[in-house]
Design goal:
The chain is of the alpha+beta class. The chain has 11 helices and 11 strands. Helices cover 38% and strands 19% of the residues. The structure holds ligand 3B9.
């Protein structure tokens, strides 16, 4: 029996949804809560109650639809609308300079670089149609990935609906899902108490969590997400594309820099090689890209990598294990 929804209830539900979207964005994307958790929860419960009384009010982008009802049986393979390329690696400043000089010869004096942190998590693809999240997937082999939409919907920093006036009909977003170090420690304590195998590091914990078939397990863990690529947006440079992603409600890593030359790139890399442990999440390097999209198109791709981007990897750290420490004491 279809209950017609009284107009004032429909209006109130729309208001509640808009408020919860805004409060969720302020809390999970801007790290700047606008209301107390108690106020948020009270309005959330009111929306859940209204949606249960009037099921025709529920929409896929409702904040109450972040956790899937039932576990998936297995993951489906999906083909990315835009392939996800890997990055060439530079293991020293000398290698980075060689890459940069080659680009300088190819493009000339107008060349600008952008430096972004390389977050140590799981590369992720998000597809939006008319501003609504319709699919999320792992990177897989770059051409095909596993469809993990239900799991990604539980990550509060991933918008279920794009903010901003003008949304493109299709927006393909790439970014890194990750687990902050303190949340990694908490999960491992939980697993230790349950007699389960521990995760070796936050990256493994993130990949393992995203492969969970039951999205309630994913929802119980505090995963983050930083967007770093937008396809079919209006931007003409990577710097603008990151600002466009922020305008649509994505969290974009704030530690990024526009660099006029390789000296500024080197300064950025050296700074974060020394200060990365002050961040609450693991990073394993810096991604340096040619900023202007027409310059990127000018140099193009090899079969595996874009020629206009490179990952400067930090030297592996001397992780002193307990055995080494005991050996030293003896
Ligand atoms: C540069 C790119 C490889 C993304 N870009 C792409 O995947 C990509 C893919 C098709 C493109 O254009 C095509 C479109 C259609 C067909 C072929 C190419 C352009 C960029 C990349 C990879 C990993 C990154 C990472 N871990 N952290 C940050 N901060 N940035 C990163 N950036």
């Amino acid at each position: 029996m279809s209950t017609t929804v009284p107009p004032e209830i429909e209006e109130h539900t729309r208001t509640l949804r808009a408020l919860l979207h805004r409060w969720g964005y302020a809390y999970y994307v801007l790290d700047a809560p606008e209301v107390s958790d108690a106020i948020y929860d009270q309005h959330y419960r009111e929306l859940v109650d209204l949606e249960s009384r009037y099921p025709e009010l529920v929409s896929p982008d409702s904040p109450t639809r972040r956790v899937g009802e039932r576990p998936a049986s297995a993951f489906v393979s999906v083909t990315h609308r835009v392939p996800m390329f890997s990055l060439e690696n530079a293991f020293s400043q000398a290698e980075l300079e060689k890459w940069g000089e080659r680009l300088l010869r190819a493009i000339g004096p107008g060349l600008e670089f952008i430096c972004e942190l390389k977050i140590d998590g799981s590369a992720t693809a998000l597809s939006y149609e008319d501003g609504v999240l319709v699919r999320g997937a792992t990177r897989g082999d770059g051409v095909e990935g596993e469809e993990i939409t239900q799991n990604l919907r539980t990550i509060r920093a991933i918008p279920l609906k794009l903010l901003g006036g003008e949304v493109p009909a299709v927006l393909e977003v790439r970014g890194e899902a990750f687990i902050p170090r303190d949340e990694f420690e908490r999960i491992n304590q939980e697993r230790q108490a349950a007699g389960e195998k521990l995760f070796a590091n936050p990256r493994n914990a993130c990949a393992g969590t995203l492969r969970q078939l039951d999205s309630r397990v994913v929802a119980s863990r505090r995963l983050g997400f930083f967007a770093y690529t937008a396809h079919y947006g209006r931007a003409e440079s990577q710097w603008e594309a990151l600002a466009e992603l922020e305008s649509h409600g994505f969290r974009v890593n704030p530690h990024r820099s526009l660099c006029r030359d390789l000296a500024e790139v080197r300064t950025f890399c050296e700074h974060w090689e020394n200060h990365r442990h002050e961040l609450p999440y693991d990073t394993d390097g810096v991604v340096v890209k040619v900023n202007a999209f027409d310059h990127q198109r000018e140099v193009g791709f090899t079969s595996k990598f874009p020629r206009w981007a490179i990952a400067f990897k930090y030297p592996a750290e001397e992780k002193s294990t307990v055995v080494e420490a005991i050996a030293v004491q003896v």
